[in-house]
Amino acid sequence: MRHTDTGDAAAPLLAASDLVKTYGGTEALRGASLDLRAGETVAVTGASGSGKSTLLHCLAGMVRPDSGTVRYAGERLEEAPERRLSELRRTDFGMVFQFGQLIPELTALDNVALPLMLGGSGRTEARERAGTWMERFGVWGQRELRPGQMSGGQAQRTALARALVTGPAVVFADEPTGALDSLASERVMTVLTQTVRESGTAVLLVTHDALVAAYADREVALRDGVTAPAGVGV
Ligand SMILES: Nc1ncnc2c1ncn2[C@@H]1O[C@H](COP(=O)(O)OP(=O)(O)OP(=O)(O)O)[C@@H](O)[C@H]1O
Fold first, then answer.
1. What keywords were assigned to this record (predicted)?
2. Shortest-distance atom of ligand 1 to CA 57
Protein backbone atom coordinates (compact mmCIF):
# COMPACT_ATOMS: atom_id res chain seq x y z
CA MET A 1 0.00 0.00 0.00
CA ARG A 2 1.38 3.37 -1.01
CA HIS A 3 -0.02 5.60 1.70
CA THR A 4 1.20 5.19 5.24
CA ASP A 5 -1.62 4.22 7.56
CA THR A 6 -1.63 6.02 10.90
CA GLY A 7 -4.21 3.58 12.25
CA ASP A 8 -6.23 6.54 13.53
CA ALA A 9 -9.07 7.54 11.24
CA ALA A 10 -9.59 10.82 13.12
CA ALA A 11 -5.97 11.96 12.76
CA PRO A 12 -5.25 14.47 9.99
CA LEU A 13 -3.30 13.16 7.03
CA LEU A 14 -1.12 16.26 6.98
CA ALA A 15 -0.63 18.65 9.90
CA ALA A 16 1.46 21.77 10.27
CA SER A 17 1.88 23.13 13.76
CA ASP A 18 3.25 26.54 14.73
CA LEU A 19 5.45 27.02 11.69
CA VAL A 20 7.95 29.84 11.68
CA LYS A 21 10.03 30.68 8.58
CA THR A 22 12.23 33.72 8.09
CA TYR A 23 14.00 34.77 4.89
CA GLY A 24 16.75 37.23 5.80
CA GLY A 25 14.83 39.93 7.65
CA THR A 26 11.40 38.85 6.32
CA GLU A 27 9.18 36.78 8.58
CA ALA A 28 7.18 34.78 6.00
CA LEU A 29 5.51 32.57 8.66
CA ARG A 30 5.15 33.59 12.30
CA GLY A 31 3.10 30.72 13.75
CA ALA A 32 1.07 28.98 11.05
CA SER A 33 -0.90 25.82 11.78
CA LEU A 34 -3.09 23.80 9.46
CA ASP A 35 -4.66 20.31 9.35
CA LEU A 36 -5.65 18.49 6.20
CA ARG A 37 -7.71 15.31 6.40
CA ALA A 38 -7.71 12.54 3.82
CA GLY A 39 -9.95 13.47 0.89
CA GLU A 40 -10.48 17.02 2.12
CA THR A 41 -9.90 20.21 0.10
CA VAL A 42 -8.63 23.16 2.14
CA ALA A 43 -8.07 26.61 0.65
CA VAL A 44 -5.35 28.83 2.12
CA THR A 45 -6.27 32.45 1.47
CA GLY A 46 -4.68 35.78 2.33
CA ALA A 47 -3.21 38.93 0.86
CA SER A 48 -0.11 38.96 -1.32
CA GLY A 49 2.96 38.33 0.86
CA SER A 50 0.96 36.84 3.75
CA GLY A 51 2.94 33.58 3.52
CA LYS A 52 0.57 31.30 1.57
CA SER A 53 3.18 29.83 -0.79
CA THR A 54 5.71 29.44 2.03
CA LEU A 55 3.14 27.47 4.04
CA LEU A 56 2.39 25.23 1.05
CA HIS A 57 6.11 24.68 0.43
CA CYS A 58 6.67 23.71 4.08
CA LEU A 59 3.75 21.26 3.99
CA ALA A 60 5.02 19.70 0.74
CA GLY A 61 8.52 19.25 2.19
CA MET A 62 10.03 21.73 -0.29
CA VAL A 63 11.05 24.27 2.36
CA ARG A 64 12.21 23.49 5.89
CA PRO A 65 10.62 25.67 8.59
CA ASP A 66 12.91 27.32 11.17
CA SER A 67 10.66 25.88 13.87
CA GLY A 68 7.38 24.05 14.22
CA THR A 69 6.40 20.62 12.93
CA VAL A 70 4.96 19.10 9.77
CA ARG A 71 3.51 15.59 10.05
CA TYR A 72 2.42 13.51 7.08
CA ALA A 73 0.61 10.31 8.10
CA GLY A 74 2.40 10.59 11.43
CA GLU A 75 5.86 11.06 9.89
CA ARG A 76 7.82 14.22 10.82
CA LEU A 77 8.72 15.94 7.55
CA GLU A 78 10.59 18.94 8.93
CA GLU A 79 13.39 16.64 10.04
CA ALA A 80 13.15 14.01 7.27
CA PRO A 81 16.19 13.56 5.01
CA GLU A 82 16.03 15.16 1.55
CA ARG A 83 15.97 11.70 -0.09
CA ARG A 84 12.77 10.78 1.76
CA LEU A 85 11.16 14.11 0.87
CA SER A 86 11.89 13.64 -2.85
CA GLU A 87 10.46 10.14 -2.62
CA LEU A 88 7.25 11.45 -1.06
CA ARG A 89 6.94 14.12 -3.73
CA ARG A 90 7.20 11.38 -6.36
CA THR A 91 4.83 8.87 -4.74
CA ASP A 92 2.37 10.54 -2.37
CA PHE A 93 2.25 14.20 -3.39
CA GLY A 94 1.17 15.89 -6.63
CA MET A 95 1.98 19.52 -7.51
CA VAL A 96 0.29 22.15 -9.64
CA PHE A 97 1.54 25.72 -9.95
CA GLN A 98 0.17 28.93 -11.42
CA PHE A 99 1.70 28.49 -14.88
CA GLY A 100 1.37 24.71 -15.07
CA GLN A 101 5.11 24.17 -15.51
CA LEU A 102 4.55 21.63 -18.26
CA ILE A 103 7.64 20.66 -20.25
CA PRO A 104 7.42 22.74 -23.44
CA GLU A 105 9.17 20.21 -25.71
CA LEU A 106 6.82 17.33 -24.84
CA THR A 107 3.26 16.76 -26.07
CA ALA A 108 0.48 17.06 -23.50
CA LEU A 109 0.14 13.27 -23.40
CA ASP A 110 3.87 12.74 -22.78
CA ASN A 111 3.82 15.43 -20.06
CA VAL A 112 1.09 13.51 -18.22
CA ALA A 113 2.79 10.14 -18.83
CA LEU A 114 6.17 11.37 -17.56
CA PRO A 115 5.65 10.89 -13.78
CA LEU A 116 4.58 7.30 -14.43
CA MET A 117 7.65 6.64 -16.58
CA LEU A 118 9.89 8.20 -13.92
CA GLY A 119 8.23 5.78 -11.49
CA GLY A 120 9.25 2.82 -13.68
CA SER A 121 6.21 2.25 -15.95
CA GLY A 122 6.78 1.38 -19.61
CA ARG A 123 5.95 4.06 -22.21
CA THR A 124 2.87 2.31 -23.66
CA GLU A 125 1.29 1.61 -20.28
CA ALA A 126 2.15 5.12 -19.03
CA ARG A 127 0.60 6.76 -22.10
CA GLU A 128 -2.52 4.62 -21.76
CA ARG A 129 -3.06 5.63 -18.13
CA ALA A 130 -2.18 9.23 -18.90
CA GLY A 131 -4.85 9.20 -21.60
CA THR A 132 -7.53 8.13 -19.12
CA TRP A 133 -6.67 11.08 -16.86
CA MET A 134 -6.64 13.47 -19.80
CA GLU A 135 -10.14 12.31 -20.73
CA ARG A 136 -11.28 12.97 -17.17
CA PHE A 137 -9.91 16.50 -17.32
CA GLY A 138 -11.40 17.16 -20.76
CA VAL A 139 -8.07 17.52 -22.60
CA TRP A 140 -7.92 14.24 -24.55
CA GLY A 141 -8.48 16.25 -27.74
CA GLN A 142 -5.29 18.22 -27.01
CA ARG A 143 -3.08 15.17 -26.37
CA GLU A 144 -0.74 15.74 -29.32
CA LEU A 145 -0.32 19.49 -28.72
CA ARG A 146 2.70 21.04 -27.06
CA PRO A 147 1.98 23.27 -24.03
CA GLY A 148 2.59 26.44 -26.10
CA GLN A 149 -0.21 25.43 -28.47
CA MET A 150 -2.85 25.06 -25.74
CA SER A 151 -5.04 27.64 -24.02
CA GLY A 152 -4.18 28.51 -20.41
CA GLY A 153 -7.15 26.49 -19.15
CA GLN A 154 -6.24 23.44 -21.24
CA ALA A 155 -2.64 23.64 -20.00
CA GLN A 156 -3.79 23.84 -16.36
CA ARG A 157 -6.17 20.88 -16.79
CA THR A 158 -3.25 18.96 -18.34
CA ALA A 159 -1.09 19.95 -15.34
CA LEU A 160 -3.83 18.65 -13.02
CA ALA A 161 -3.95 15.35 -14.93
CA ARG A 162 -0.16 15.13 -14.51
CA ALA A 163 -0.45 15.83 -10.77
CA LEU A 164 -3.08 13.12 -10.28
CA VAL A 165 -1.86 10.41 -12.66
CA THR A 166 0.28 8.67 -10.02
CA GLY A 167 -2.64 8.49 -7.55
CA PRO A 168 -1.22 10.85 -4.90
CA ALA A 169 -2.81 11.18 -1.44
CA VAL A 170 -2.35 14.96 -1.49
CA VAL A 171 -2.30 17.50 -4.31
CA PHE A 172 -0.66 20.86 -3.60
CA ALA A 173 -2.06 23.54 -5.88
CA ASP A 174 -0.47 27.00 -5.70
CA GLU A 175 -2.73 29.53 -7.47
CA PRO A 176 -3.71 26.91 -10.10
CA THR A 177 -6.14 29.37 -11.70
CA GLY A 178 -4.04 32.50 -11.14
CA ALA A 179 -3.34 33.00 -14.84
CA LEU A 180 -6.87 32.19 -16.08
CA ASP A 181 -10.03 34.18 -16.77
CA SER A 182 -13.04 33.43 -14.58
CA LEU A 183 -14.70 31.01 -17.01
CA ALA A 184 -11.54 28.91 -17.41
CA SER A 185 -10.97 29.08 -13.62
CA GLU A 186 -14.44 27.73 -12.99
CA ARG A 187 -13.91 24.88 -15.42
CA VAL A 188 -10.56 23.97 -13.80
CA MET A 189 -12.03 24.08 -10.29
CA THR A 190 -15.17 22.13 -11.22
CA VAL A 191 -13.22 19.29 -12.80
CA LEU A 192 -10.61 19.27 -10.01
CA THR A 193 -13.23 19.14 -7.24
CA GLN A 194 -15.19 16.42 -9.01
CA THR A 195 -12.12 14.30 -9.70
CA VAL A 196 -10.60 14.47 -6.21
CA ARG A 197 -13.97 13.62 -4.70
CA GLU A 198 -14.03 10.45 -6.80
CA SER A 199 -10.40 9.54 -6.13
CA GLY A 200 -10.39 10.48 -2.42
CA THR A 201 -7.40 12.80 -2.89
CA ALA A 202 -6.81 15.64 -0.43
CA VAL A 203 -6.04 19.08 -1.88
CA LEU A 204 -4.20 21.99 -0.36
CA LEU A 205 -5.17 24.95 -2.49
CA VAL A 206 -3.49 28.35 -2.27
CA THR A 207 -5.53 31.17 -3.75
CA HIS A 208 -6.21 34.87 -3.33
CA ASP A 209 -9.51 34.45 -5.22
CA ALA A 210 -12.63 34.07 -3.05
CA LEU A 211 -14.56 32.42 -5.90
CA VAL A 212 -11.87 29.74 -6.21
CA ALA A 213 -11.66 29.27 -2.41
CA ALA A 214 -15.41 28.65 -2.37
CA TYR A 215 -14.80 25.29 -4.09
CA ALA A 216 -12.91 24.06 -1.00
CA ASP A 217 -14.51 22.21 1.91
CA ARG A 218 -12.84 24.62 4.29
CA GLU A 219 -10.84 27.83 4.26
CA VAL A 220 -7.84 28.86 6.37
CA ALA A 221 -6.84 32.53 6.26
CA LEU A 222 -3.24 33.70 6.61
CA ARG A 223 -2.48 37.17 7.80
CA ASP A 224 1.13 38.35 8.13
CA GLY A 225 2.31 34.75 8.48
CA VAL A 226 -0.25 33.72 11.10
CA THR A 227 -3.20 31.40 10.42
CA ALA A 228 -6.77 31.81 11.59
CA PRO A 229 -9.97 30.17 10.39
CA ALA A 230 -11.40 32.41 7.64
CA GLY A 231 -13.42 35.30 8.98
CA VAL A 232 -11.94 35.10 12.48
CA GLY A 233 -10.03 38.05 13.88
CA VAL A 234 -10.01 39.93 10.57
N1 LIG B 1 12.79 32.48 -1.18
C2 LIG B 1 12.52 33.64 -0.58
N3 LIG B 1 13.50 34.52 -0.30
C4 LIG B 1 13.24 35.69 0.33
N5 LIG B 1 12.01 36.07 0.71
C6 LIG B 1 11.00 35.27 0.45
C7 LIG B 1 11.18 34.00 -0.21
N8 LIG B 1 9.97 33.39 -0.32
C9 LIG B 1 9.07 34.24 0.22
N10 LIG B 1 9.68 35.34 0.69
C11 LIG B 1 9.00 36.47 1.37
O12 LIG B 1 8.16 35.95 2.39
C13 LIG B 1 6.91 36.61 2.42
C14 LIG B 1 5.79 35.62 2.15
O15 LIG B 1 5.87 35.17 0.80
P16 LIG B 1 4.89 34.09 0.17
O17 LIG B 1 5.31 33.92 -1.27
O18 LIG B 1 4.84 32.91 1.02
O19 LIG B 1 3.49 34.87 0.25
P20 LIG B 1 2.16 34.66 -0.58
O21 LIG B 1 1.04 34.93 0.36
O22 LIG B 1 2.18 33.35 -1.27
O23 LIG B 1 2.26 35.84 -1.64
P24 LIG B 1 1.65 35.95 -3.15
O25 LIG B 1 0.15 35.85 -2.99
O26 LIG B 1 2.08 37.32 -3.59
O27 LIG B 1 2.26 34.84 -3.95
C28 LIG B 1 6.99 37.73 1.38
O29 LIG B 1 7.35 38.92 2.03
C30 LIG B 1 8.09 37.26 0.45
O31 LIG B 1 8.73 38.34 -0.16
1. ATP-binding, Nucleotide-binding, Transport
2. 18
DSSP state of 5: P
Q: What is the ipTM for the molecules in this complex?
A: 0.96
Please report the atom of ligand 1 found closest to the CA of residue 50.
21
Å from CA of 225 to ligand 1 middle: 10
Contacts of 166 (CB under 8 A, 6+ apart): 90, 91, 94, 115, 116, 119
Average pLDDT, the chain: 91
Which protein residue's CA is at the shortest distance from atom 13 of ligand 1?
Answer: 28
How far apart CA 196 and CA 107 sit, in angstroms, is: 24
The binding-site residues of ligand 1, defined as CB within 6 angstroms of any ligand atom, are 23, 26, 28, 46, 48-54, 208
69-84: average pLDDT: 95
- Which of 34, 52, 177 is the best mutation target for the ligand 1 pocket, counting ligand atoms within 8 Å of the beta carbon and taking the most? 52
Residue type, 190: T
- Tell the CATH topology of 1-92+202-234: Rossmann fold (3.40.50)
**pLDDT tens digit sequence for 24-46:** 999 999 999 999 999 999 999 99
Domain assignments of the chain as residue spans, ordered by start: 1-92+202-234
DSSP 186-229: HHHHHHHHHHHHHHT-EEEEE-S-HHHHTTSSEEEEEETTEEEE
Query: Of 214, 206, 210, nearest to 95 (Cα)?
Result: 206
